[in-house]
Design goal:
By secondary structure, the chain is α/β, with parallel strands linked by helices. It folds into 3 domains: about 250 residues, 3-Layer(aba) Sandwich (Rossmann fold); about 50 residues; about 50 residues, no CATH class. Helix content is about 45%, strand content about 20%. The protein is built from 15 helices and 16 strands. Helix 2 links the parallel strand 2 and strand 3. Helix 3 packs parallel to helix 5. The chain is globular. The two termini are about 40 Å apart. The model has no long low-confidence stretch (mean pLDDT about 85).
Length: about 375
């Protein structure tokens, strides 16, 4: 099963692209969203920006969101690995506005591209918008440095996830920006002239996404769809503009961008040791955990994917050590189910004050209740306070 990469030019939390988020979440069967907070991590109001994104996913899409916690370039290795593990195991990952150069500086200490590739190849959805979208390609435009500071146009090395996905190019959001009025702010604010200078320096294919527009790359279907208000521009030897509402074959996109051949379908990540590890974690099988760790360690010296898997296992073991191998949900599920049923009876009887109080009390204990069309469900957000 193959996943999706959604590249948004802007408007990532606006009403026009809510349906695009929803489709990506549903296709990935994601129950939660992981928000990568790195691009705006340098800002004084980073915590408030994170909370706004969490609120957006909760209120507009009825899906809870967790913040990865990757703001600082000074984060220790434990915090980095916890965040990277959350991303690798997520079904829907989002990152948005900020500074692409700052994000790349922080991510230089980890293999972010491999983590995102794993999400997509495992059937999940990665949605990157604005500054985060700039980081996806072979090279990145350092927008702040060029547009705000006035530095001569230059490229930064990007994550190069696009090449890994069979689409060798750099990504340019805000492609048709017109905020400058009497001066050119298209091509992500640097204008056509300066973008031309960059391409004279390095002839790289470009994938440009207009304002309030998304390019939806579906690797299972092998298609690219342009959705939203504008279009998607593929710049190879010439420009190919894909208007909103159109869908084209990914093979044709790859060839236009300079790939020698159409991309193959992404294989699901072959990680039997991780499957065994997950099963052992669920069942509390200490011997199974040890076997999975040792088998992964044998491959880790020569296999970057195995090294990443081993680090993920270690992070999960530390988390398990904090609460014990037994799943706390299995210990309390009977009690919580009774309380949730009492809340339902209160709601059905019109006693909304009691129903709301029960929900608030459960949230305080680390239990999140969600109302759906088929009834209420609950999940544990972490260790209960008491």
């Amino acid at each position: 099963m193959n996943g999706r990469l959604i590249i948004m030019g802007s408007g990532e939390t606006g009403p026009g692209l809510v349906a695009t988020h929803r489709a990506g979440i549903q296709a990935a069967r994601a129950e939660r969203v992981v928000v990568i907070d790195t691009p705006f991590g340098f800002q004084e109001n980073a915590a408030q920006l994170s909370e706004k994104l969490v609120t957006f996913f909760q209120t507009s899409l009825n899906v809870p969101a967790d913040v990865a916690g990757l703001r600082s370039r000074d984060a220790d290795v434990a915090d980095r690995e916890r965040a990277l593990d959350a991303i690798r195991r997520a079904k829907y990952v989002f990152a948005g506005p900020g500074s692409p150069s700052y994000a790349l500086e922080v991510w230089a200490a980890m293999d972010m591209s491999a983590a995102l590739h794993r999400v997509i190849s495992g059937g999940g959805t990665v949605t990157f918008a604005s500054a985060a979208a700039l980081t996806l390609g072979r090279t990145t435009i350092p927008v702040y440095e060029i547009y705000k500071v006035g530095a001569p146009p230059f490229w930064l090395d990007g994550l190069d996830l696009m090449t890994e996905l069979g689409l060798p190019c750099s990504v340019v959001p805000h492609w048709n920006n017109a905020e400058g009025g009497n001066h050119d702010t298209s091509r992500c604010y640097i204008g056509e002239r300066r973008l031309g200078r960059l391409r004279d320096e390095l002839r790289v294919g470009l994938l440009g996404v207009d304002e309030h527009t998304a390019a939806v790359l579906d690797f299972g279907e092998g298609t690219l769809a342009a959705v939203g208000r504008g279009g998607v521009t593929l710049r190879g030897d010439d420009d190919w503009v894909i208007p909103c509402g159109s869908t084209v074959e990914l093979g044709a996109v790859a060839i236009h961008l300079g790939a020698p051949e159409a991309p193959e379908a992404l294989p699901a990540p072959p990680e039997p040791e991780e499957v065994g590890f997950a099963q052992a974690m669920r069942s509390g099988d200490a011997d199974g955990l040890l076997i999975a760790l040792l088998e992964t360690e044998e491959r880790a010296q020569d296999d970057p994917a195995a090294r990443a898997a081993l680090r993920s296992m270690l992070v999960q073991l530390v988390s398990a050590a904090e609460i014990g191998l037994a799943d706390p949900r299995t210990l309390i599920s009977g009690f919580v189910d009774v309380i949730v049923e009492l809340r339902r009876q209160a709601r059905d009887g019109g006693d909304y004050a009691t129903a709301d109080q029960i929900r608030s009390d459960l949230e305080r204990l680390g239990i999140e209740v969600r109302d759906t069309r088929t009834g209420a469900t609950w999940t544990m957000r972490g260790k209960a306070d008491g």
